[in-house]
Amino acid sequence: MHNGVMQPPSSRPLRASRWHQPAVRGIVYQVLAVGAVGLLAWFLISNTLANLHSRNIASGFGFLQGEAGFAIGESVIAYTPQDSVARAILVGLLNTLKIAAVGIVLSTILGTLVGIARLSKNVLVAKLAAAYVELVRNVPLLLQLFFWYALVTEHLPGPRQALNPLPGVFLSNRGMKIPTPVDHIALDFALAGLFIAIALWLLVANFARRRQAATGQRLPVLRVGIAMLIGLPVLGWAIGGAPLALDVPRLQGFNFTGGATLSPEFAALLAGLVFYTTAFTAEVVRAGIQSVSTGQWEAAGSIGLPRGLALRLVVLPQALRVIVPPMTSQFLNLTKNSSLAIAIGYPDLVSVVNTTMNQSGQAIESILIIMGAYLVVSLSISLAMNAYNRRIALTER
Length: 397
What we know:
- By secondary structure, this protein is α+β, with helices and mostly antiparallel strands.
- 65% of the residues lie in helices and 6% in strands.
- It has helices spanning 12-16, 22-54, 85-118, 123-137, 141-154, 185-215, 221-239, 264-290, 294-302, 307-337, 349-360, 363-392; strands at 163-166, 169-172, 175-178, 180-181, 246-247, 250-252, 255-257, 260-262.
- Helix 6 (185-215) packs antiparallel against helix 7.
């Protein structure tokens, strides 16, 4: 107030306080952070390129087109040392995906069984499951891989004294040899029948779920699915001519030829990863089941459901909402832990890229390939599991 006249409030304090607004400060800090990261990246990249140039080391990914020049013990696709480095790396990546896919399936099945066993009312079963979980979780994975590899390679005889538990099946320190069907068009028909059976099973399961929600009646989805998984491939094999010829392994020199081989390295790596990851997935499953209130068990029992059906139809579907997120982490851990395969000689991605790095000297590019491959695989697993998690999540109305 000046000379009895009320003065309007000044706008200067408002302008001066703009910096104190959280939104403004947040934008400024973010710009500064991005700029700092960009400067750091520029410094590292320019410094690396300068060091490579001073040592006359070529940079870039041109070495991928050169000849690999080394053999790979096992591969999902055809490969020879005359193939390119890029194909060799692809072989290593496929070997990693193979061990990861099989390991995820087996560890999920075994982990679910062990997790349920830990909650068993049978004291002996529960204690044995608990002892397994505590023992395996507290022993480093690398030591377990060494144990399994020694068990497979040192306690089995050589090829000439190979064990023959079944006709055409041989066990030795070179791996397990089994007969395989000869290459025939009937195999393509059988494989097509398998894919059709899987697609039909998914359709039947979806129809059964909708029917049960509408009428309360259950369909024998499991039995129908197993019947299709067996029947349709057999039908395709019969349509293709039903060939009975097998490529039976036979001893030739100091090793077997013919048939298919389960290598000791693959078996040891798979056993180590599965038994190790199973201990963690069992705890995830146990925690998920225990998160469901006891009232659900009592409600299922009140309508006459046995404990097994109550677990499968009432408790586990609700526990999945708690199980899936941490289970995703276990799947990612198994995939990344497969990089320890280099310790026992399994030709995974890390092993193959390490060999190419030693030959070409392209250390930075090789490390980037490994990082990029694992990043893509891990993000793919995360996206698939997150999509499934959204599907089973409770939705508000």
